[in-house]
Specification:
34% of the residues lie in helices and 30% in strands. A six-stranded antiparallel sheet has the order 1-6-5-4-3-2, covered by helices on one side.
Length: 143
Amino acid sequence: MRTPGDFLDCYRVTSDMAPRAAAKIITDFPGWAQLLVKLRGIFTAPFGLKQSGPEDVDSVGFFPVISDTPTELIAGFDDKHLNFRVSVVQTDGHVHLATWVSPHNIGGRLYLTAILPFHILIARDALVRVQNNPASGPTLSAT
């Protein structure tokens, strides 16, 4: 449930790719984003924040899958500073990537503020990679 202070965003690209396939591309971070994730781990480890999801569950990247249907995959986890969910939806020739973050405390709000510019770059880059993937199908063009 959305509460005041939550962060929500959604981006979309033209693609016929299934949600799980798109989510695998989205979470296969390029080198520069992997470096940011490693730096995040270094800076947040002293605060006891999760560095990844459980190893024995279905996941995309290091995000545990919460729901997987033919039209939507939801992944994410709850941590002591915030709850995080990502939704990948395929509908009407588009893949949508939506993110919901619900900070629990000042630490979660500070963390969200610090990572937000990087999140936007990573999310947009991820969808460009989905759209440029040959499995995305033909790109729609104006005639």
